[in-house]
Amino acid sequence: FQLHRLQNLSKEQIKKISNEEKFNSIKGKLKSDQERIWVEVKSRIIENNSTLAILIVITELTDKVENTRLKELDQFKDKLLAIVTHELRTPLNCVIPLITTAVKSEDIPEEIRSKILRPCLSSSKLLQNLVNDILDYYQIKSGKIRMGKIKFNVKESLEKIIQLFEVQAHLKDINLHVKVDENLAQEAYSDPNRLAQILNNLISNAIKYTPKGGNVCVSAQRGAKSNSLHIEVRDNGPGIPSNAIENLFSDFTAEGKMDLTNSDIRTNPSGMGIGMSISNHLVQLLGGSGIQVYSVLGKGSSFSFELPITTENNSDIVNSQLNRDSENNFSKSSVEPIMKPVFNCTCRNALIVDDNMYNILSLKAQLSQFKFNVLKAFDGQEAVDLIEDLHNKVEGCGSEKCQRIKVIFMDYEMPRLNGLRATAMIKDIIKSKNIPDIPIILNT
After folding, report:
1. What is the pTM assigned to this prediction?
2. What pLDDT tens digit does each residue of the chain (444 aa) get?
3. Do residues 391 and 398 touch, judged by C-beta distance below 8 A?
4. DSSP state of 4
5. What does the alpha-carbon distance between residue 13 and residue 23 come to, in Å, rounded to a whole number?
6. Which stretches within 152-191 are classed as H helix?
7. Using alpha carbons only, what angle is made at residue 361 by residues 163 and 367, rounded to the nearest 5 degrees?
8. Distance in angstroms (rounded) separating the CA atoms of residues 176 and 159
9. How far apart are CA 274 and CA 141, in angstroms?
């Protein structure tokens, strides 16, 4: 073969020939003197000026291959993170309610509850918060986080948030002051759960790093703009160095967490350092410009932010989410509506549908506090079969329109039939058989 004859071919001719289907292509990795590079070698026998010859085209693909690999690696990390955080939350959602029930039990000696169970509960909640922070961070960075905007009472929401920290502040002998402007709008349209998440972070940090006997003040008032809410969390703690403030909202830094050992203010490396970053992102996602920080060493710090709280519901989708602190604990107010008699039905049966027995035991322990009789099903199909033959499988109270089952707790991910499809089928059965409506709570 005479390779030199190909010199007369133009670049356009070579490109046209190399794109033909008859062209043989080989992709591989070559090792140069310094690094390995990816190349594609194309070759085919052609006839040029009545002479057979071989045309070889070598194209470097290193950048293209590396970009593809990085993209695949990012997708793998995102998927792995979502799976791991979900799998970590599952056992935590079981452990925390069980320990909470044990802590409240008077059958267990107080010494065991205070020295063993309460530290276990605190550690479990800390781990849960870390897992939730990782999941929130992933959702924020991937653009998948969603704001659940609903109408809510501003003053009532703030009061409930503050109540969560009253005991914590009392145990540390910290004076927790709350100031709410009387002229503040009663009703707002925003995400109360994300607002609570932001304040939980700011208030817990203020209490944690304020010395014993100090003061923490939370104030809420009208913002500078119309229909806006201005919130400030102020303490008289050690203050934050200016160089630490600059990095306070950086990802995976623990700046701003102070240690008063030997009266020296230094960075405490404990923690993941994403709580403040997440809170700052949430403020921005809710329409604010971010969290503002003012601090004086030895005198204290102030964290403030301003959010629009328009009362107009102009959102296409309203997603109401449970407060993260209530995911694993029932309150009397949340269960009371379910316990109210319907058509004089006095049944106290609850159906738990979950393929994880530990989740069933955990939820059963919580429901037992309200005198519920718990029925269980290990997948959606089993639950559908039970509702289909409800009158024969579940004993009623004998009232004219007996519900037999007061509420159904449905898991989403299950074998055979998932929770979403099972819920739709159960609703159809209830409607077709004229059974009084049964509330179904879908757990994701």
Report:
1. 0.57
2. 334 444 555 666 656 655 555 555 555 655 555 567 777 777 777 766 666 667 777 777 778 877 888 888 877 877 787 777 777 877 888 888 888 888 888 889 999 988 899 888 888 887 888 888 888 887 887 777 888 888 888 888 888 888 888 878 888 889 988 888 887 777 888 888 889 889 988 998 899 889 888 999 999 888 877 788 899 999 998 888 888 887 788 766 554 444 433 333 333 334 446 888 889 999 999 989 899 999 988 889 999 999 987 755 443 323 333 333 434 444 444 444 444 444 456 778 889 999 888 888 888 888 887 888 888 999 999 999 998 887 777 776 666 666 678 889 999 888 889 999 999 999 999 888 887 788 899 876
3. no
4. G
5. 14
6. 154-171
7. 50
8. 12
9. 12
Using CB atoms within 10 A of its CB, is residue 239 exposed (0-12), middle (13-18) or buried (19+)? buried
Largest separation between any pair of C-alpha atoms in the chain: 101
Distance of alpha carbon 222 from alpha carbon 216, whole angstroms:
20
Run of H or E including 25: strand 24-31
Query: How far apart, in whole angstroms, are the C-alpha atoms of residue 101 and residue 111?
Result: 16
Distance of alpha carbon 410 from alpha carbon 440, whole angstroms: 7
Write down the residue that tokens 């959010």 correspond to. Answer: 307
